[in-house]
Amino acid sequence: MRLYRVILVASVAACGEPRVSQDAPLVSPLVRVRLLGVAPQPPTITIVKNPEHCGVLLQDPVLLVAADNGIANCVVSIEDAPTETQKDTVDVEGAALSITASHCLFQPRVFCAKLGTRLSLVNADGIPHDPHLWGPSGRSSLHITLFDAALRPSHLLDEAGVWLLNCDIHDWMRAFVHVFAHRYYAITDESGCARLPELPTGTYRVRVWHEVLGVSSNDCLFTGDMIDIHVDFRDTRDRRRLPSGMAEWPQK
Amino acid sequence: MTKVAIVARAALLALTASVIVYFRSGLLQTVPAVGSKIGGVRANIDVASGILRRMSPDLALRIDALSPELVQLGSLLFQDARLSRSSSISCASCHQPSVAFSDSRKQSIGEKGPVTRNAPVVFNRGLAPRLFWDGRASSLKEQARGPLLCVKEMGFSESSYLARVVTDGDRDLRSFLGASPVLERICAALAEFQISLVSVSSAFDQHEWDGASISDKVQEGARLFRGKAGCSQCHTGWNFSDEKYHDIGLITDDLGLAGMTGVEHDRRRFKTPTLRNISRTAPYMHDGSFATIREVLDHYNAGGARAVGRSILVRPLDLTLDELDAMEAFLGSLEGPVVCVARQ
Lengths: 252, 344
Fold this sequence. Notes:
- The complex is a heterodimer.
- By secondary structure, chain A is an all-beta fold.
- In chain A, 2% of the residues lie in helices and 39% in strands.
- Chain A contains 1 helix and 21 strands.
- In chain A, the strands form 6 sheets. Chain A has a 5-stranded mixed β-sheet, with no helix packed on it.
- In chain A, strand 14 (161-167) and strand 15 (174-180) form a beta hairpin.
- The longest helix of chain A has 4 residues, at 51-54.
- Chain A is globular and about 60 Å long.
- Chain A starts with 9 loop residues before the first strand and ends in a 21-residue tail after the last strand.
- By secondary structure, chain B is mainly alpha-helical.
- Chain B is built from 15 helices and 6 strands.
- Chain B has helices at 3-25, 27-30, 39-55, 57-64, 68-78, 91-94, 140-149, 158-167, 171-177, 183-196, 203-210, 216-226, 258-261, 293-301, 321-332, and strands spanning 109-110, 113-114, 197-198, 245-246, 270-271, 339-340.
- In chain B, strand 1 (109-110) and strand 2 form a beta hairpin.
- The longest helix of chain B is centred in the N-terminal third of the chain and has 23 residues, at 3-25.
- Chain B starts with a helix and ends with a strand.
- Classes of the chains: A mainly beta, B mainly alpha.
- Chains A and B meet through strand 12 of A and helix 11 of B.
């Protein structure tokens, strides 16, 4: 219910036949996600709740584009990951991830985790936050008001998919945790690059997710060279469901 | 059998039937005796228990630790009018199960007439840090003493109560109460019972926690509640209350929290009530001054009726009529059964 299932317009370099061969050498692919054309100026979020702490205006943090058009916070994953290596990363009880409410934003905003990771929440602001965690099926999983840093609730991420965390008080505060049952995923850094774990040379179905730009899936040939995935700008979010104070990104 | 005896018997049967009907439509329907096997109620308890364990694991653990016998006794004492001076007022007189344990009067009627404030609901209180509109009680046991001992409300007298229990031949209760003083044990049982009362399975809860469908209008109202209207700044968390005190710009002479703290800044500040079952708990506010939910919404939409001293969280909202309708629909979706989920 909170996922924006819209297909991106994407062009992919180095994609096509053949698929994976049995004796193929291993590569650790580097994927770079880049925006086509000029990045739009980010809109501002108008703050009416706790402006004394959060400020009156906040720069929209959802689309971060580098000078060479690399896009940060894209989740890159292999849809047809080698099955024989999936089991060793499933049910890894003990892995932990922490998301902190700081300066009226959740940090990190986008994150990846293995299935079985325990997510804990921290409020580092001096004002109450009301984190509400939604599982991949769109159902509530955790909802607890954090008045200060003393209370640190946690929740086991026991289902693969995208978990959404939002603050029910400051509705622009959101975080997305992508939970995988395999290890072939990575998140793009500030330059738009993400390095995937080692896998045999071959063609794989690569999925790219971004909070604003949506989702794309493309076949890509991994030979060891960097793969460029180009993304056209389009705000795919349902504008009726945008948090109050948040504006659509300007279309090109 | 004589004609008089037949009439008397018929009357007795009718009275018995009416009592059963009363309880089924009132208290027992909503607050089943622990171990109740009534189908509909059992189903409500199961749904509520399932959601509660995910929604508030801490409260579920707290309830698991309750003594079933004490809860059962507390439920009986809650309905026991002999606790009042005139034997006419029980806890349930002002916290009526038929209206989600609230009172449909602006001010409840005590032994000396109307009391000062509107009766708050008594469910989902198991983890409450403070009780009463002004937070003057720090535990449910302490809270229970308040109305019992207040001469304007119930005017409890230990000797009178024990005499009534003995006269009525209520041996089990007399045995539980033990030696004097008995007030502590009564309050303990009432507290256990109140801890066991939860309401967590409204249509909105079942939508958010179990994926049940709900109308677009309710969803729009929820978005406004958490977004533009900013209600969730105080009505926060799973129980829709921050358990804190706010001056929401009402015209009132009531000192509120300041009556307890003596601090001028606390004047007219009252504890945020839950919004669960709000559609059943009119009238609203500490003084019952608003008769309808729409009046409450209009008050907030205008930014309150008074500016000086008012919380900065209360501000004009500029909600349209459609938006107010959606918010009213959302608030209505918070209606759900109040059940006793204690261990059996």
